[in-house]
Design goal:
heterodimer, A: 108 residues, alpha+beta, Ubiquitin-like (UB roll), 5-stranded mixed β-sheet, 2 helices, globular, B: alpha/beta, FAD/NAD(P)-binding domain, Enolase-like, domain 1, 3 domains, 5-stranded parallel β-sheet, 23% helix, binds flavin-adenine dinucleotide, binds FE2/S2 (inorganic) cluster
Chain lengths: 108, 419
């Protein structure tokens, strides 16, 4: 199990235990974490699962693919060159063990 | 002040569930009832013909919302319940179990059902459609043993399924009556590119060849598909993807206008001021198509739901106007191929290529009377997102600009509209 913390703009935090192989997006949608939509079902096609990864967890994340990179240029809230990722492209056990992310104010 | 009346939503798919969410966000504090006949907890359909079919462990459906969503939002959600009729005069809906539910406003979000084949042998075991999670569970289980499958119809779902089956090493034949795949939705250039790509994945794509009948293995199971040219294709499994029919039966029986979907205005309202329809089942006046249309996509379901919530509650922003004008967009993933479409093209639109098709990353720009109508992008999300921006803002792009490789289309899409 990986521990994932979603920090919201209002200061609230959702902490989830996530099974290996499950993406941040799937974990958030399944558990009702506000502010993560995931409208394309995890295909890196909608950019509504945008998160800002906290700096201390950036090491060890997989490279950003070309597709993810292009979608990140089109997020509703501005992209952070270091910290922005698509939640559907980060999987527990594969991309991270524990992780903390900030949820943007808007996704659509 | 009287408590606001019940809003009753029939159908708990992509449109119905987004509507619940949007009604609460727009400030509706009164009761909401949402009824769905499927017994599964509401889930997303797009993965069912993609990731869900991959080999390996038991796949899990992706829910539309968390279970606690319904409690947190104080929603009366009923699964496995079927609405059989509507009484407009009394403002009630009847359920299969004999009960009735009253409404102040009624929303039909009933989606669509798979079109079924009627050729001889169509009811044999081993012939499947793919619309619901129940369908996908069956198809996933059967794929584990399948050696050769025949797909009827080279539409999005048929080809997504074909690519997934090829990834598992299964032999795949696709029979398509038209002379190119996805002909209804794609420009000829893009459609021909996909034909080639599926053939290089090892799929036997037979164009101009429909299904004539199925052969029985003697035990009631399909053994082969016989095409309209008389060819025989052995099959231990068949997937039928020949399109859908909007679920208009409730509306029709209630005397509401129906023509390729339930007829609604730009507010998603039917001719009955207390009844709305949206998503796959609704036929609406499309701003972008400049005609009535009915779309089948996640974007269409969710954007129309956001709009319908405002129409019901009267919370449209007066500066934005009341009419639904959201830009249609769509995606499909077929194996490693990622197709995205912004806007609505029509047969006969002029097409201009940007990028090199042989590189596997390019876009097709569609024009009608020199006006940009749609952009189809292959493995090129940046083009797609820029096209969405441009089309949504109705910012002009000339065919000459599109044809000029030196023209910075993405920068152009970001510029403010000249006064
Ligand atoms: C396999 C598959 C793959 C897809 N892939 C994509 C894709 O990649 N991209 C994309 O944009 N779109 C895709 N789509 C289309 C998208 O899923 C649909 O457009 C969307 O689900 C439509 O939402 P809806 O709410 O209008 O209808 P639905 O999701 O069909 O929901 C309607 C619900 O209403 C229920 N219902 C109907 N009548 C009654 C009644 N009388 N009583 C009770 N319940 C009733 C139905 O059982 C159904 O559950 C795909 C669809 C399928 C099937
Ligand atoms: S879920 Fe759509 S981009 Fe991640």
């Amino acid at each position: 199990m990986a521990k994932v913390s979603f920090h919201h703009t209002d200061g609230n935090v959702d902490v989830l235990d996530v099974d290996p192989g499950t993406s941040l997006m799937r974990a958030a949608v399944t558990n009702g974490v506000a502010g993560i939509a995931g409208e394309c079902g995890g295909q890196a096609m909608c950019a509504t699962c945008h998160v800002y990864v906290r700096p201390e967890y950036l090491d060890g994340l997989p490279e950003i693919s070309d597709d993810e990179d292009e979608m990140l240029d089109c997020t509703a809230d501005p992209r952070d060159d270091e910290r922005s990722r698509l939640g559907c492209q980060l999987k527990a056990g594969e991309s991270f063990d524990d992780i903390e992310v900030d949820v943007p104010g808007s996704q659509v | 002040m009287p408590r606001p009346g019940n809003i009753l939503i029939v159908g708990n798919g992509q449109a119905g569930i987004q509507l619940v969410d949007s009604l609460r966000k727009e400030g509706h504090t009164g009761p909401i009832t949402i009824i769905g006949e499927e017994t599964h907890f509401p889930y997303q359909r797009p993965p069912l013909s993609k990731d869900y079919l991959a080999a390996g462990t038991d796949p899990a459906p992706l829910p539309l919302r968390a279970e606690k969503f319904f409690m947190d939002n104080d929603v009366d959600s009923r699964l496995g319940a079927h609405v059989t009729s509507i009484n407009r005069a009394r403002h009630t809906a009847a359920l299969a179990d004999g009960s009735t539910v009253g409404y102040a406003k009624l929303v039909l979000a009933t989606g669509a059902a798979n079109r079924v084949l009627t050729v001889p042998g169509s009811r044999l075991a081993g012939i499947h459609g793919l619309r619901t999670l129940a369908d996908a569970e069956t198809v996933h289980a059967r794929l584990g043993e399948a050696k050769s499958v025949v797909v009827i119809g080279a539409g999005f779902i048929g080809l997504e399924f074909a690519a997934a089956a090829r990834k598992r090493g299964i032999e795949v034949t696709v029979l398509e009556y038209a002379d190119r795949p996805m002909a209804r939705a794609l420009s000829p250039v893009m459609s021909r590119w996909f034909a080639q790509a599926h053939r290089s994945m090892g799929t036997d794509l037979r164009l101009g060849e429909g299904i004539a009948s199925f052969e029985n293995d003697g035990a009631g199971h399909v053994a082969a598909a016989i095409s309209t040219t008389g060819r025989r294709y052995p099959a231990d499994m068949v997937l039928v993807g020949i399109g859908v029919i909007p679920r208009t039966e409730l509306a029709e029986a209630a005397g509401l206008a129906v023509a390729n979907g339930i007829t609604v205005d730009t507010n998603m309202r039917t001719e009955d001021p207390d009844i709305f329809a949206l998503g796959d089942c609704a036929n609406y006046p499309s701003h972008h198509a400049e005609a009535r249309t009915r779309l089948e996509s996640v974007q269409n379901a969710t954007d129309q739901a956001r709009h319908t919530a405002k129409s019901i509650l009267g919370t449209h922003d007066p500066t934005q106007g009341q009419a639904y004008k959201e830009l249609p967009w769509f995606w499909s993933t077929q194996g490693d191929l990622r197709l995205q479409i912004a806007g609505i093209a029509q047969p006969g639109d002029e097409t201009i290529l940007r990028g090199d098709p042989s590189s596997g990353k390019f876009s097709v720009f569609c024009f009608r009377n020199a006006r940009l109508t749609a952009v189809e992008s292959l493995n090129h999300p940046a083009d797609h997102m820029a096209a969405r921006k441009l089309l949504a803002r109705e910012r002009s792009l000339s065919p000459d600009q599109a044809a000029d490789p030196g023209f910075d289309f993405r920068a152009h899409a970001k510029e403010p509209q000249p006064a």
